[in-house]
Amino acid sequence: MRRFFDNPAYRWFLLSCAYVVIAAAVIHGFYAKWRLNDGHPALGLSQMVEGTAYRPYVYRQFVPALANGIQDMLPRAAVARISERLAEPRRLNSRLGLAMRYPESEALMPDFTLRYHLVYYLTFFALLAALFVMRRVCLEAGADAAAATMAPAVTALLLPFFLTEGGYFYDFFELLFMMGAVLLALGASRGTPLRLLALLALAGMAAWNKEAFFFFTPALYPLLRRNLPRAQAAAMVAALLFVCGCVYLALRMRYAGNPGSTVDYQLWDNLRFYADPGNWLRTESTYGVLLPRGFGVISLLAFAGIAVSGWASLPQALRRHALMALSINLPLFLLFCSPGEMRNLSMLYPALMCLMALSLTRWMKRETDRHPHTMAHAR
Fold this sequence. Notes:
Keywords: Membrane, Transmembrane, Transmembrane helix. With 379 residues, this protein is an all-alpha fold. It has one domain (1-73, 111-362). The chain is built from 17 helices and two strands. It has helices at 2-6, 8-34, 45-50, 62-73, 76-87, 110-141, 145-162, 170-186, 192-209, 213-216, 221-225, 230-254, 267-275, 297-311, 316-336, 349-370, 372-378; strands spanning 283-286, 289-292. The protein has a two-stranded antiparallel ribbon.
């Protein structure tokens, strides 16, 4: 019996159970905070799946296209039956539907109900997949197995805090795509042609999900450079930029007639916001509890400590990646993002997670060295 429970397959089963619980908690925290922008005329989900949302939100069509494609593959009678089952909160089998907890979704149009649920669950599975990818990235960064398992969970649990001023389903796919790109770039020397082709395909989907991935691709250069010659790494970044640019231009042409604008300039609003000390001490409800906002003094102190603790252990390629991502993301954040919108520092997610994993590794090693007899007895 003990052999069965010590089997690696069983340990993967336990890890999967833990990550499912983490992903479910995070998605619920996100949904309770922002829903799917229900009823918002510019960027509500009904407008996104119908392609009538305002620019630039309408450009983020990867998940709406998936939901539309899945619904289109089903017979209309099946769509009607499933939608009725999901939308009716008073029937015994309505536990599948979001309407049971959030009555606002009862008002969803019948043709939209299934797509609403599809986007919700696709977002959940994207986060779940991201957790496993993030764990592998942590191992590549040099974290031990325990820290590499915990750091993705902690990073994921922080996401609802980062979703200040708004939260969107495509933020979770962005996390998956960024972490996947980092993992593929780090392992570019192993099965190089297939990995590089996979990275190009991932870049196309990531740009379809959110155009900001175009700006993230140059930060992959130090990771590619770890295992590839300079010319090949530079050529790969150029190819990634080309793929992302083509996808973005196609979306921009497709939705050129939609209301809105390509970007909103926010520099002066941002400077005024960050110059006000009161904005660094705000609170908001996250996970149903009034807590400090994701952007503020508490977060700044916590992340500074993580950075200081883990920086010395971070591999050189990831250090350069982090610095390059910061040099790209920070100006874009100040120029184009709403004040305090911390989710738009998402290019720093991989670096933050790796620093957290290495900090945990260092902390656990220090505790083991401090209490060797206790740890040996526990083992």
